[in-house]
């Protein structure tokens, strides 16, 4: 009984901020107050009609899409190299690949800012994409690495003995068996990149800024519930991504172990 | 003699300073079933991997059908391999697993269909084609692996301890089946095992390996009845090896007790130190002293149902293993003194 109460309390504690934000987003008045004074969709209308948010949404899709498209193959090759390669100082490589997890965002952001300035790329979205690749790579490498570990090396030998070139063996055997790890990595990468704020703040401007940065800039200037409405949309979108991926992953698991 | 299919010439393979295979020469003939037999770490699996092309020799040549394939990667060697873990592709159906090699060879779809069907019939799995490997029993998975390795009619099939993962009863069934399939297909086979019963029962020839070298190569009966070295005598049939000094062509003096008479085999050189091997099943309990009878003290008894394995120590400290068929003629107990008859014609003189 006490245990159940504790779980309920914990869940309430964890979801409370989300509930508050969603509730506030329907507030008809222009103040961020809780509980809301009524019900209105005007802030949602405001979100969808603000050109700054529209542009930021497109930027977010481009940056996340680009970063994930690059990080997935790079991370997969890195995971394979870490597990299979004849590497000197394997644990140093592993530590380097996983290090963005422990570098403070401000430090990383500053580093990328200085680099981008030196390269004259401050106005470019490519810097954002490059930074996001670096930030999501640890998640991709970790997820794929687990799948690589579970792979029996004899399977690739078997494929070779059956006449498959190394590339064909990779395509027909290795890659399909890495699918659970690839999906998990993809999911992490999308969620991390979509929500990334600190580093992106350093290296974006009004034209290239992604949604979290645009939201921050809005909050600095205005205090109406628009930002609550956008946050709610963001929460729902993230939830949908995770839910769909989880469904798909579960399907994958059933598919692999009948 | 049949024509050579696989030849290893002076093959050496080192792993980080450890010599796994040491200047090995081996020829496998057309249609032959050859076993590489030895304890773990003797180099038998490395030898198989050298033939398959999974590892390259540090030195030496590998020939298939007289052609040098030393530098050729595995996927271009066209050999069939059955792995100890089976290495079936878990994401593909049984049928797709078997079809894998044919697809890589770009065989026409109708031809693939027909040959996969034939192969599955050969291993009696024609009704399991749509299932995934994980849905099959160990014995069935084993047969899928065999069908997959045979379906594209490789020149040689290499079997890496294929029976090791099965339980005893199934292993015996599969052993018979494997032999029958190999006979009916007539394919040249190299079989790696640490199990002497498998090797003796399946092989045309056995190469007994130890520390990267072939200790003895010959037909099963030859290996069993005339072991060339102490290692072979001990590894196959768990023989007892006794040391002594030859008195003349057929008598060997022990440090303790009367000399033993040795009949058959090669003549002894008087004065030479010799090693005599004798199988535990050839040693008999004797009622009392006599010709070739030694006195020993029982040190250990292991009851095995059909027989009891007796370990006894001679007066000079040498140990003798004896299988006593149950029921034993007299009750046996540790510490008891017994007379053992070592028949003259049961001795194998080691080189």
Question: Can you describe what's shown?
Answer:
The complex is a heterodimer of chains A (258) and B (351). With 258 residues, chain A is mainly alpha-helical. Helix content of chain A is 78%, strand content 0%. Chain A is globular. The two termini of chain A are 38 Å apart. Chain B has 351 residues and is of the alpha+beta class. Helices cover 24% and strands 34% of the residues of chain B. In chain B, the strands form 4 sheets. Chain B has a 6-stranded mixed β-sheet, sandwiched between helices. Chain B has a 5-stranded antiparallel β-sheet with strand order 13-12-11-14-20. A 5-stranded antiparallel β-sheet of chain B has the order 15-19-16-17-18, with no helix packed on it. In chain B, β16 and β17 form a beta hairpin. The longest helix of chain B has 18 residues. Chain B starts with a strand and ends with a strand. The mean pLDDT of chain B is 89. Classes of the chains: A mainly alpha (258), B alpha+beta (351).
Highlighted features:
heterodimer; A: 258 residues; mainly alpha; 12 helices; 78% helix; disordered C terminus; B: 351 residues; alpha+beta; six-stranded mixed sheet; five-stranded antiparallel sheet; 8 helices; 34% strand; elongated
Quick description:
The complex is a heterodimer of chains A (about 260) and B (about 350). By secondary structure, chain A is an all-alpha fold.
Number of strands of chain B: 20
Helix content of chain A: over 70%
Please give the count of helices of chain A. 12
| Biggest interface, residues from each chain | A-B, 22 and 30 residues
What's the oligomerization state?
heterodimer
Tell me the Rg of chain A in angstroms.
Answer: 22 Å
Overall, the morphology of chain B is: elongated
User: Approximately what portion of the residues of chain A adopt beta-strand conformation?
Assistant: under 5%
The description of the largest β-sheet of chain B is: 6 strands, mixed
**Structural class assignment of chain A:** mainly alpha
Strand adjacency order, main sheet of chain B: 6-7-8-3-9-10
Number of strands of chain A: 0
Mean pLDDT of chain A, as a whole number? 86
């Amino acid at each position: 009984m006490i245990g159940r109460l504790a779980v309920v309390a914990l869940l309430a504690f964890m979801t409370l901020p989300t509930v508050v934000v969603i509730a506030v987003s329907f507030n008809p008045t222009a103040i961020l107050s809780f509980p809301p004074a009524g019900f209105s969709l005007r802030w949602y209308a405001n979100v969808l009609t603000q050109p700054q948010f529209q542009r930021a949404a497109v930027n977010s899709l481009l940056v996340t899409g680009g970063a994930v498209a690059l990080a997935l193959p790079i991370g997969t090759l890195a995971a394979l190299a870490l597990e299979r390669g004849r590497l000197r100082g394997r644990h140093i490589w592993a530590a380097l690949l996983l290090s963005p997890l422990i570098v403070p965002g401000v430090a990383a952001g500053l580093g990328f800012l200085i680099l981008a300035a030196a390269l004259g790329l401050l106005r470019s979205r490519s810097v954002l994409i490059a930074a996001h690749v670096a930030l999501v790579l640890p998640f991709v490498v970790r997820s794929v690495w687990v799948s690589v570990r579970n792979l029996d090396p004899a399977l690739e030998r078997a494929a070779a003995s059956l006449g498959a070139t190394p590339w064909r063996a990779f395509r027909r055997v290795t890659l399909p068996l890495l699918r659970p790890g690839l999906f998990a990595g993809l999911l992490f990468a999308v969620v991390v990149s979509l929500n990334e704020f600190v580093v992106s703040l350093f290296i974006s401007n009004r034209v290239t800024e992604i949604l979290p940065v645009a939201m921050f800039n809005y909050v600095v200037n205005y205090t109406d519930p628009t930002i609550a409405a956008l946050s709610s949309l963001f929460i729902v979108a993230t939830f949908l991504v995770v839910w769909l991926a989880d469904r798909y992953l579960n399907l994958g698991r059933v598919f692999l172990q009948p | 003699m049949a024509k050579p299919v696989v030849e290893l010439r002076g093959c050496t393979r080192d792993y980080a300073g450890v010599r796994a295979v040491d200047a090995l020469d081996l020829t496998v003939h057309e249609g032959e079933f050859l076993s590489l037999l030895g304890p773990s770490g003797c180099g038998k699996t490395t030898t198989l991997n050298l033939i398959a092309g999974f590892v390259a020799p540090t030195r030496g040549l590998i020939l298939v059908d007289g052609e040098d394939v030393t530098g050729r990667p595995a996927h271009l060697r066209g050999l069939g391999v059955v792995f100890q873990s089976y290495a079936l592709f878990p994401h593909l159906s049984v049928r797709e697993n078997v079809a894998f090699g044919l697809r890589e060879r770009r065989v026409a779809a109708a031809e693939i269909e027909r040959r996969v069907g034939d192969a599955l019939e050969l291993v009696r799995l024609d009704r399991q084609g749509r299932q995934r490997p994980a849905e099959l029993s160990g014995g069935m998975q084993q047969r899928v692996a065999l069908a997959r390795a045979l379906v594209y009619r490789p020149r040689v099939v290499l079997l890496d301890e294929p029976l090791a993962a099965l339980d005893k009863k199934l292993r015996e069934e599969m052993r018979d089946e494997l032999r029958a399939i190999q006979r009916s297909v007539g394919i040249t086979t190299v079989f790696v095992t640490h199990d002497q019963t498998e090797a003796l029962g399946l092989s045309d020839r056995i190469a007994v390996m130890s520390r990267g070298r072939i200790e003895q190569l010959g037909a099963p009966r030859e290996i069993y009845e005339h072991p060339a070295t102490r290692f072979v005598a001990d590894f196959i049939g768990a023989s007892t090896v006794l040391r002594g000094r030859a008195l003349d062509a057929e008598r060997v003096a022990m440090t303790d007790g009367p000399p033993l008479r040795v009949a058959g085999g090669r003549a002894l050189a008087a004065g030479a130190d010799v090693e005599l091997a004798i199988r535990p099943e050839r040693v008999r309990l004797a009622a009392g002293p006599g010709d070739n009878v030694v006195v020993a003290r029982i040190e250990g008894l292991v009851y095995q149902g059909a027989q009891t394995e007796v370990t006894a120590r001679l007066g000079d400290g040498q140990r003798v293993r004896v299988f006593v068929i149950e029921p034993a003629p007299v009750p046996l107990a540790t510490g008891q003194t017994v007379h053992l008859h070592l028949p003259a014609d049961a001795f194998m003189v080691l080189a």
